[in-house]
Amino acid sequence: NRFDDPDSTLAENIEFLPNSEGKKPRFTDFEGKTSFGMSVFNLGNAIMGSGILGLAYAMANTGILLFLFLLTAVAGLSCYSIHLLLKSSGVVGIRSYEQLGFRAFGITGKMAAGIAITLQNIGGKENLTLILQLGYLGYTSGFSLSCMVFFLSAVIYKKFQIPCPFEEFSANSTLAHAHSNVTVNHAHGYHNGHVMVDDSRCSPQMFTINTHTAYTIPILAFAFVCHPEVLPIYTELRNPTQRKMQHISNISILIMYTMYFLAALFGYLTFYTNVEAELLHTYSRIDPYDTLILCVRLAVLTAVTLTVPIVLFPVRRAIQEMMFPNKTFNWIRHVAIAVILLTFINMLVIFAPNILGIFGIIGATSAPCLIFIFPAVFYIRIVPKDKEPMRSTPKIFAACFAGLGMLFMIMSLSFIIIDWTTGSSSALGGH
């Protein structure tokens, strides 16, 4: 078949790294060509996504200090999680997340990892690519991050341009039309045909607890998931070592941590309790034809689109591992998976009522699995007991880490389901 590639060493199909005869496979056996800086851009690009749009909403429902604490905690735990992944992969020389699952728990672990990766990336980004290698993508990753810097700059600028209380856009002064423009029921008066927001709503809160606080950890977890992309980026790193890749991960997470906090802070200080789950949608309530915001929308769309190769790489391999584990590379299947993913995601975007539901469910299910639970249990199972006994400090920490992930998942899902069933989520209206 002319569409079949007999060379099983194509990047997307390699499960184990090349190694010399009789030697244990290691990452250093693969000749990576990606520089340190490009790898930082690639991983930062993998972290960044639509999750940044929900962070101001998360801050509005936790307060500035509580949000900062939770953001710091999730970022730090993500770094530790990557440390566990790198140590596990170093023991067995495996370059894919789902293959670590297979090594740890057989087909069950492989399927669980594959499903979690698929859900996370379908929920987070639109995916379509024919690319087989990741190395040169640092250039598009840099441009993508530049688009998000533009988004952040616009959010900061708008904070000093939009007054509080702000006036919502209204085409006429009729009560019915004015009412249709109020989505969060915080308005208390009218002025020249515009809806005015109560001044008492314009003071920042340091600590806040309400029914929507339950979405905070899922949104943060959703925003920091990059773990399925770590191993492919590690493999293509020039002169790779675990310490070097951990350093890359720490820098990438620190950069995104800074961007996330600034975007959340200035988005929150612009709209306070009126901020919606999708930050850019809140700006359209003031002026849907604002040129700067329209440009920002385009920039965010461009940034998310340029993350496609980084993100699709593991999700498509996860699907192939689950459905076609013993098949050689085939271009028709390769393209078909991408087209089906794109079609499904477009339908999801069209028919999903809002972005908060996606943040909540994906962030409370697949994200804790990929960040907390899977790396910890893979580490416990893969690292030999003669090297690290079950009662050793690293494995005890890993077990506690997995337990923390389970706790986050159960608590978040419970509160979100309660919020849905009571109908108290004002943000769940159609956007």
Give structural attributes.
17 helices; 431 residues; single chain; globular; two-stranded antiparallel ribbon; Amino acid/polyamine transporter I; three-stranded antiparallel beta sheet; mainly alpha; disordered C terminus
Overview of the structural elements:
The protein is built from 17 helices and 5 strands. The chain has helices at about 35-45, 55-60, 65-90, 95-105, 105-125, 140-160, 175-180, 215-225, 225-235, 240-270, 280-285, 290-305, 310-325, 330-350, 355-365, 365-380, 395-420; strands at about 5, 165-170, 185-190, 195, 330. A hairpin with a 2-residue loop joins strand 3 (about 185-190) and strand 4 (about 195). It starts with a strand and ends in a 9-residue tail after the last helix. About 45% of the residues are buried.
Percentage of residues in DSSP E strands: under 5%
Write down the domain tally: 1
- Summed up, the helix count is 17
Report strand order across the widest sheet: 2-4-3
> How would you spell out the order of helices and strands?
EHHHHHHEHEEHHHHHHEHHHH
- Tell me the helix content: 55-70%
CATH superfamily grouping:
Amino acid/polyamine transporter I
Number of strand segments = 5
Task: Based on the coordinates given, report the CATH architecture.
Answer: Up-down Bundle
